[in-house]
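Figure 2 data, in text form.
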Amino acid sequence: MLHLSTATPHCQSKSSIEVLPRDEARKHLLAIADMLAKVLDTTVRIPGTSWYIGLDPLLGLIPGIGDVIANLIGTVILGLATRLQLPRIVLARMSLNLLINGTVGAVPIVGDLFSVWFRSHTRNAALLREAAMKPDRETHADWFYVAGIIGGTVALLLLTIVSIVWSVIKLWKVVAGG
């Protein structure tokens, strides 16, 4: 046995971090994605209907930043997909779902109704689960691509919101006579 420290061979430190077996870790990450999707898309049933809403459309009611916050939370599912080393095409589809939800969601009221219908986070959790259950693929070379997709998605979401806020401010100045 090779010891890299100068401590005595009989002294072994116990790590406080428990490393889960690969399948258990995968199940844990899938459960986190499912939980986040439920919180963001389908937490509460609308009384008298079969429709459910979550935090995403409710946050969308906050002008300017609500959709950004909801979609930034939703990028956690995308991050879990990268951690599970899913294929690039799945990551691209998940990013597109977030981009669509963030862009349309930025339109007041219509965007919130769209978020209730579209449920991008539930779609992404389903894509994640489906791809994660397929046989493993080596994607170590894809990390730069993944970082670019996530960064690009976040940048486009922020740019969309900034342009909408800018447009509202300009419109307000015109209407208010300023």
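Caption note: Residues 40 and 56 are 5 Å apart (CA to CA).
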